[in-house]
Amino acid sequence: MSPAFAQPVTPPARYANVQLADPAKEASARALMETLRCLVCQGQSIADSDADMAADMRALVRERIERGEKPASIRDWLIARYGDYVTYDPPLSGLTWPLWLAPILLLGVGGWIARSSFRRRTR
Amino acid sequence: MKRFVLWAPLAIFALLFAVVASGLFRPAEKVVRSAMIGKPLPDFALPAMVPGKPGLSSASFRQGKPRLLNVFASWCIPCIAEAPQLMRLKAMGVPVDAIAIRDTAPAIAGFLRRNGDPYERIGSDKASQVQLALGSSGVPETFVIDGRGIVVKQIIGDIRPENVAEIVQAVKDAR
What we know:
Shape of chain A: elongated
Distance between the termini of chain A: 64 Å
Strand content of chain B: 15-25%
Oligomer: heterodimer
Number of helices of chain A: 4
Helix content of chain B: 25-40%
Strand content of chain A: under 5%
């Protein structure tokens, strides 16, 4: 809801644009950030967005990874607050199963079509 | 079977066209609702934002009476628009607390001087961490919290004059 012409004057949080000292931790934070949706830009991950809220979400992710929290538990914490909408890696549920099963189904249909057309040719 | 196969591509195209057209004419809702409705307010303790007014902690919301929790900022234009409605709610006896997002004491003091001060407490949320814990995705947003500290309602965007009655009702129902 924050309009484009209104910007806060305070500096960004410490870990918004600063990497973690431990490269392994930074890599896992980065991987998680790339799969979390920026809530105010909606088409971007928080890793890609310049929005202030995305910066604060990056800070949250890095601080929790720094403390030793697992990426999956940080994702679950955000899903508990914003719903599946916040993640680009949606969990398998009653609503999302077509997302996961459709590719397998389509592959099956493709295989079936290919098989029957090859069979016709050899005849 | 053969007739079905002939018509299938057109049918699939028509279906796809309908999906895309409905998306064009009825764009998706742009607000992100909090998933915390019906759940207890997360624990937090925020320092005072302005001198002379206490900071805000989740304990204030477990004292038996429903309260409003307003998420605002001095740099937020719609927050100016909703200020008169918050003043009205305060005048009607609804207690209002706030968290100020990414803000400074002088900026908030100026905002309260210009737009009125409906708040009993204001906590300073420098890095939006409490806002994120609430499932709030922007300013302004207002949460109705019942006397046991359960989040019962979220109002996204500025409170319009026509929203005041529904908020008063929600506070009454939360009693």
